[in-house]
Specification:
The chain is mainly alpha-helical. The chain is built from 16 helices and no strands. The chain starts with a helix and ends with a helix. InterPro entries: BPD_transp_1_N, MetI-like, MetI-like_sf.
């Protein structure tokens, strides 16, 4: 188990390094922060001083080495907009993002899991068709479209909820509903497929033939074996909590990390963008690593296969 864990941690670190490296190069090739921040009418001397001050006049490989040297010492850089620590700028927005993404995650699970299980148990009935129709609609509709529709209904037409901002807890309802409903549709589809595959296995028929109550067959045999595929999609959603909020936060003017990312990219605030991408990368990698370790704990056969593949 130790070797399995160390192998996954090593792969996680390599993945995060590649993410940050790719973002570093793309950001510096996508535009000149001096022109974006100082404006097109600034004198050439101001551009030159800005680039020198932030080290942008050096070759990109030197900037890269200096950046990773600073990161290894815990220095993630400062914002080019106001000079504050980029980590502080991002850290101020994290609680607001978690305030909508964590409730949305619970909403996805609370709706998606029972819906998927119900659709599988009532396969090819009107219940199954209804759940899958709604699920397909939720899966295919973009989050910004669903967000705008919800805002039109509950904010504009009915006037029950605010359409944007973060002043009160009511402002969080529409972003949570938008992310929760779309995620629930995805979980429902995966759960249904996993349950149908398990319900068709011989050991399920054998358990039923032994006289076990169907409810016991489902809870004791089907659900545990269908957990791994469902665990995969839930783990992915945990890892993409921040990344998945980018569009929704922009739609509802929610001042979280996602909206900050859009603003920082537009302003070429390199250090802030890199901190956010580093945070997103660590979150996704940590979630995937946790899921991988849970795989090995739930089913030791998977751990053995991973070890054989890595040897």
């Amino acid at each position: 188990m130790l070797r399995y864990t160390l192998l996954r941690i090593l792969r996680a670190l390599i993945t995060v390094t590649l993410i940050v490296s790719l973002a570093f190069v793309i950001l510096r090739l996508s535009g000149d922060p001096a022109i974006i921040i100082l404006g097109p009418e600034a004198p050439p001397e101001a551009y030159a001083a800005f680039r020198t001050n932030w080290g942008l006049d050096q070759p990109i490989w030197i900037q890269y080495l200096k950046y990773f040297g600073a990161v290894s010492q815990g220095d993630l850089g400062n914002s080019m907009r106001d000079g504050r620590s980029a980590l502080q700028v991002v850290g101020e927005r994290v609680p607001l993002t978690l305030a909508i993404t964590i409730p949305a995650l619970f909403l996805k699970i609370l709706i998606g899991l029972p819906a998927g299980i119900c659709a599988a148990l009532y396969r090819n009935t009107y219940i199954d068709r209804l759940i899958m129709t709604v699920s397909v609609m939720g899966f295919t509709v973009p989050s910004f479209v669903l967000g705008l529709v919800l805002a039109l209904i509950f904010a504009v037409k009915l006037g029950w909820l605010p359409s944007g901002g973060s002043d009160t807890w009511q402002h969080a309802i529409l972003p949570i509903l938008t992310m929760g409903l779309i995620g629930a549709a995805v979980i429902a589809r995966f759960t249904r497929s996993a349950m149908l595959e398990v319900l068709g296995q011989p050991y399920i028929r054998s358990a039923s033939a032994k006289g076990l109550v169907w409810r016991e067959v489902v809870t004791s045999h089907a659900l545990p074996n269908a957990a791994i595929p469902t665990l995969t999609i839930v783990g992915f959603m945990v890892g993409s909590l921040v990344a998945g909020a980018v569009v929704v936060e922009s739609v509802f003017s929610w001042p979280g990390v996602g909206r900050l990312l859009v603003t920082a990219v537009a302003n070429r605030d390199l250090a802030v963008v890199q901190v956010i991408l580093l945070f997103i990368g660590f979150t996704m990698v940590f979630a995937n690593l946790t899921v991988d370790l849970l795989y090995g704990w739930v089913d030791p056969r998977l751990r053995t296969k991973q070890l054989q593949a890595g040897s």
